[in-house]
Write a structure and sequence with these properties.
Blueprint (H helix, E strand, L loop, with lengths): L3 E8 L3 E3 L12 H13 L2 E5 H10 L11 H12 L1 E5 L16 E4 L3 H10 L5 E4 L2 H9 L5 E7 L7 E2 L10 E8 L5 E7 L2
Parallel strand pairs: 1-6, 1-7, 3-4, 3-6, 4-5
Antiparallel strand pairs: 2-8, 7-10, 9-10
Length: about 190
């Protein structure tokens, strides 16, 4: 069975965004892009909440065509165009998007447990949930996340949108590995102990 992995940048005090959703405190550089790109390139399914999907869709399909794209931009744009995208949204209407926007995209608006478990049963590699704190909260509460791929940024926000909130029960984790980046960001890779 495929695993659903939550990929998040997080502050030392557990926030994934500031109080207004800001993520300008997240440290990303070529070292992190290269490290993350290797794992992402092996994935064939990306999971997003509506807001994150719309942000991604506004940029990545044509990012490689912009002037002076980086190696990361070209690689991720190609990957984004071919990957199967799953969007969790109760409000998204496919008729409101530009032509071609929803190609290779599946919208889940109800029966979350059944629909996600169905995707997990399909052939393929791990399913990566990118950002999307609201979607992550729903999936965590339903015990659908199988692992956490966290990039702990060397900052304490003090307030914002936490990754872990309204948890119904303890979630025991097993640490698979860690990686320290020169920027001070530390990767923590966990699997959920079931």
């Amino acid at each position: 069975m495929r695993k659903l992995i939550s990929f998040m940048h997080i502050s030392l005090d557990g926030y994934v965004a500031g109080p207004n959703g800001e993520i300008n405190w997240v440290k990303v550089d070529e070292e992190i892009f290269d490290y993350v790109g290797k794992r992402i390139s092996e994935g064939d399914t990306a999971l997003y909440g509506r807001a994150t999907y719309q942000m991604m869709e506004d940029y990545w399909p044509t990012a490689a065509e912009k002037p002076n794209p980086t190696k990361h931009t070209i690689e991720h744009s190609k990957w984004y165009s071919k990957v199967h995208k799953v969007v969790l949204s109760k409000t998204m209407n496919p008729d409101n998007f530009r032509e071609g926007c929803l190609s290779n995209t599946e919208i889940i608006s109800d029966n979350l447990v059944d629909r996600i478990n169905n995707i997990k049963q399909q052939a393929g590699s791990e399913i990566l949930l990118f950002g999307s704190p609201s979607a992550a909260h729903s999936l965590i509460q339903l015990n659908l996340i199988d692992g956490y791929w966290l990039f702990v940024n060397p900052i304490i926000l003090g307030r914002g949108i936490p990754l872990f909130t309204d948890i119904n029960d303890k979630i025991k984790l097993n640490l698979l590995n860690t990686h320290q980046f020169t920027s001070g960001v530390t990767e923590l890779n966990y699997t959920v102990d079931r």
